[in-house]
Amino acid sequence: MSENALVLIDFQNDYFDGGAFPLVNTAAAAANAAKLVAAFRNAGRPVIHVRHHATEEGADFFVPGTQGAEIHALVSPAAGDPVVTKSNINAFLDTDMKALLDTRGVRHVTVVGAMSHMCVDAFVRAASDFGFGVTVVHDAVATRDLDFGGRTVPASDVHAAFMSALAFAYAELVSTEDYLQR
Protein backbone atom coordinates (compact mmCIF):
# COMPACT_ATOMS: atom_id res chain seq x y z
CA MET A 1 0.00 0.00 0.00
CA SER A 2 1.20 3.49 -0.82
CA GLU A 3 -0.27 6.76 0.23
CA ASN A 4 0.90 8.57 -2.93
CA ALA A 5 0.19 7.56 -6.52
CA LEU A 6 1.25 9.11 -9.82
CA VAL A 7 -1.67 9.57 -12.21
CA LEU A 8 -0.86 10.16 -15.88
CA ILE A 9 -3.83 11.49 -17.82
CA ASP A 10 -4.26 11.06 -21.58
CA PHE A 11 -0.64 10.99 -22.73
CA GLN A 12 -1.88 9.41 -25.95
CA ASN A 13 -0.33 9.52 -29.41
CA ASP A 14 -3.03 11.76 -30.89
CA TYR A 15 -1.87 14.61 -28.60
CA PHE A 16 1.71 14.48 -29.91
CA ASP A 17 3.18 15.98 -33.08
CA GLY A 18 1.86 14.01 -36.04
CA GLY A 19 -1.23 12.92 -34.10
CA ALA A 20 -4.81 13.78 -34.93
CA PHE A 21 -5.08 16.50 -32.23
CA PRO A 22 -1.58 17.73 -31.30
CA LEU A 23 -1.08 19.96 -28.28
CA VAL A 24 1.66 22.48 -27.54
CA ASN A 25 4.80 20.97 -25.94
CA THR A 26 3.32 17.55 -25.30
CA ALA A 27 6.65 15.79 -25.80
CA ALA A 28 8.36 18.04 -23.23
CA ALA A 29 5.55 17.45 -20.73
CA ALA A 30 5.74 13.69 -21.32
CA ALA A 31 9.53 13.71 -20.92
CA ASN A 32 9.07 15.33 -17.49
CA ALA A 33 6.34 12.82 -16.68
CA ALA A 34 8.72 9.99 -17.60
CA LYS A 35 11.16 11.22 -14.93
CA LEU A 36 8.36 11.06 -12.39
CA VAL A 37 7.34 7.59 -13.56
CA ALA A 38 10.90 6.39 -12.96
CA ALA A 39 11.00 7.97 -9.49
CA PHE A 40 7.65 6.47 -8.48
CA ARG A 41 8.60 3.02 -9.76
CA ASN A 42 11.96 3.18 -7.98
CA ALA A 43 10.14 4.06 -4.74
CA GLY A 44 7.61 1.24 -5.23
CA ARG A 45 4.72 3.68 -5.50
CA PRO A 46 1.74 3.16 -7.82
CA VAL A 47 1.76 4.56 -11.35
CA ILE A 48 -1.74 4.77 -12.82
CA HIS A 49 -2.40 5.58 -16.46
CA VAL A 50 -5.61 7.09 -17.81
CA ARG A 51 -6.54 6.92 -21.47
CA HIS A 52 -9.52 8.39 -23.23
CA HIS A 53 -11.52 6.34 -25.73
CA ALA A 54 -13.89 8.40 -27.84
CA THR A 55 -17.37 6.95 -28.02
CA GLU A 56 -18.96 9.64 -30.16
CA GLU A 57 -19.93 8.76 -33.72
CA GLY A 58 -17.39 10.27 -36.12
CA ALA A 59 -14.79 11.12 -33.46
CA ASP A 60 -11.59 12.60 -34.90
CA PHE A 61 -9.15 11.42 -32.24
CA PHE A 62 -8.73 8.83 -29.45
CA VAL A 63 -10.68 6.37 -31.57
CA PRO A 64 -10.40 2.94 -29.90
CA GLY A 65 -8.21 0.52 -31.83
CA THR A 66 -6.15 3.23 -33.53
CA GLN A 67 -2.50 4.05 -32.93
CA GLY A 68 -3.57 7.54 -31.89
CA ALA A 69 -5.53 6.20 -28.92
CA GLU A 70 -2.51 4.29 -27.56
CA ILE A 71 -0.49 5.65 -24.65
CA HIS A 72 2.71 7.26 -25.92
CA ALA A 73 5.96 5.29 -25.68
CA LEU A 74 7.61 7.99 -23.51
CA VAL A 75 5.30 7.02 -20.63
CA SER A 76 4.03 3.60 -21.61
CA PRO A 77 2.60 1.41 -18.86
CA ALA A 78 4.78 -1.27 -17.33
CA ALA A 79 3.48 -4.69 -16.39
CA GLY A 80 1.21 -4.23 -13.41
CA ASP A 81 0.47 -0.54 -13.98
CA PRO A 82 -3.29 -0.05 -13.93
CA VAL A 83 -4.78 1.61 -17.00
CA VAL A 84 -8.13 3.33 -16.52
CA THR A 85 -10.09 3.78 -19.73
CA LYS A 86 -12.56 6.64 -19.73
CA SER A 87 -14.95 8.19 -22.20
CA ASN A 88 -15.72 11.30 -20.15
CA ILE A 89 -13.56 14.29 -19.32
CA ASN A 90 -13.43 13.39 -15.61
CA ALA A 91 -11.50 10.14 -15.04
CA PHE A 92 -13.61 9.38 -11.96
CA LEU A 93 -16.88 9.44 -13.90
CA ASP A 94 -18.09 5.96 -14.93
CA THR A 95 -14.72 4.32 -14.14
CA ASP A 96 -13.23 2.40 -11.25
CA MET A 97 -10.69 5.17 -10.50
CA LYS A 98 -11.92 5.90 -6.96
CA ALA A 99 -12.01 2.22 -6.01
CA LEU A 100 -8.57 1.70 -7.58
CA LEU A 101 -7.09 4.46 -5.43
CA ASP A 102 -8.92 3.37 -2.30
CA THR A 103 -7.91 -0.30 -2.53
CA ARG A 104 -4.26 0.76 -2.83
CA GLY A 105 -4.49 2.98 0.24
CA VAL A 106 -3.82 6.11 -1.81
CA ARG A 107 -4.50 9.35 0.03
CA HIS A 108 -2.53 11.69 -2.25
CA VAL A 109 -2.31 11.87 -6.04
CA THR A 110 0.42 13.47 -8.09
CA VAL A 111 -1.07 14.45 -11.43
CA VAL A 112 0.44 14.97 -14.89
CA GLY A 113 -0.95 14.76 -18.40
CA ALA A 114 -3.28 16.53 -20.80
CA MET A 115 -5.10 18.81 -21.27
CA SER A 116 -4.61 21.48 -18.59
CA HIS A 117 -8.04 22.98 -19.15
CA MET A 118 -10.03 19.77 -19.52
CA CYS A 119 -9.14 16.33 -18.20
CA VAL A 120 -6.38 17.42 -15.83
CA ASP A 121 -8.55 20.19 -14.39
CA ALA A 122 -11.57 17.88 -14.00
CA PHE A 123 -9.51 15.12 -12.36
CA VAL A 124 -7.78 17.46 -9.91
CA ARG A 125 -11.02 19.08 -8.78
CA ALA A 126 -12.77 15.73 -8.40
CA ALA A 127 -9.83 14.20 -6.52
CA SER A 128 -9.87 17.14 -4.12
CA ASP A 129 -13.64 16.83 -3.71
CA PHE A 130 -13.15 13.14 -2.82
CA GLY A 131 -10.69 14.18 -0.10
CA PHE A 132 -7.41 13.27 -1.78
CA GLY A 133 -4.41 15.50 -1.37
CA VAL A 134 -3.33 16.66 -4.83
CA THR A 135 -0.06 17.81 -6.35
CA VAL A 136 0.11 18.89 -9.99
CA VAL A 137 3.52 18.87 -11.64
CA HIS A 138 2.83 21.82 -13.90
CA ASP A 139 5.64 21.33 -16.41
CA ALA A 140 4.46 17.76 -17.02
CA VAL A 141 1.05 18.97 -18.23
CA ALA A 142 0.22 20.12 -21.77
CA THR A 143 -2.61 21.98 -23.47
CA ARG A 144 -3.40 23.84 -26.68
CA ASP A 145 -4.37 27.26 -28.00
CA LEU A 146 -8.05 28.06 -27.50
CA ASP A 147 -10.40 30.51 -29.16
CA PHE A 148 -12.67 32.82 -27.20
CA GLY A 149 -14.48 36.01 -28.12
CA GLY A 150 -12.90 36.17 -31.54
CA ARG A 151 -9.32 35.86 -30.33
CA THR A 152 -6.82 33.08 -29.93
CA VAL A 153 -5.70 32.42 -26.36
CA PRO A 154 -2.16 30.99 -26.51
CA ALA A 155 -1.59 27.61 -24.86
CA SER A 156 0.84 29.19 -22.40
CA ASP A 157 -1.91 31.54 -21.19
CA VAL A 158 -4.50 28.74 -21.05
CA HIS A 159 -2.06 26.65 -19.02
CA ALA A 160 -1.15 29.51 -16.67
CA ALA A 161 -4.79 30.37 -16.04
CA PHE A 162 -5.77 26.81 -15.19
CA MET A 163 -2.68 26.07 -13.11
CA SER A 164 -3.17 29.26 -11.10
CA ALA A 165 -6.84 28.40 -10.54
CA LEU A 166 -5.96 24.91 -9.31
CA ALA A 167 -3.23 26.31 -7.06
CA PHE A 168 -5.73 28.67 -5.45
CA ALA A 169 -7.73 25.96 -3.69
CA TYR A 170 -7.36 22.49 -5.21
CA ALA A 171 -3.72 21.47 -5.44
CA GLU A 172 -0.11 22.18 -4.70
CA LEU A 173 1.71 23.04 -7.93
CA VAL A 174 5.39 22.28 -8.40
CA SER A 175 7.89 21.78 -11.20
CA THR A 176 9.38 18.41 -12.06
CA GLU A 177 12.77 19.46 -10.73
CA ASP A 178 11.33 20.66 -7.41
CA TYR A 179 9.25 17.52 -7.04
CA LEU A 180 12.20 15.21 -7.66
CA GLN A 181 14.41 17.11 -5.19
CA ARG A 182 12.03 16.36 -2.31
UniProtKB/TrEMBL annotation:
Keywords: Hydrolase
Sections of the chain in a coiled coil: none
Superkingdom of source: Bacteria
Keyword Hydrolase: yes
Residues annotated as domain Isochorismatase-like: 5-177
CDD domains attached to this UniProt entry: nicotinamidase_related (cd01014)
InterPro entries for this protein: Isochorismatase-like_dom (IPR000868), Isochorismatase-like_hydrls (IPR050272), Isochorismatase-like_sf (IPR036380)
PANTHER family: ISOCHORISMATASE HYDROLASE (PTHR43540:SF1), PEROXYUREIDOACRYLATE/UREIDOACRYLATE AMIDOHYDROLASE-RELATED (PTHR43540)
UniProt protein name: Nicotinamidase-related amidase
Provenance organism: Rhizobium aquaticum
Phylogenetic lineage: Bacteria, Pseudomonadati, Pseudomonadota, Alphaproteobacteria, Hyphomicrobiales
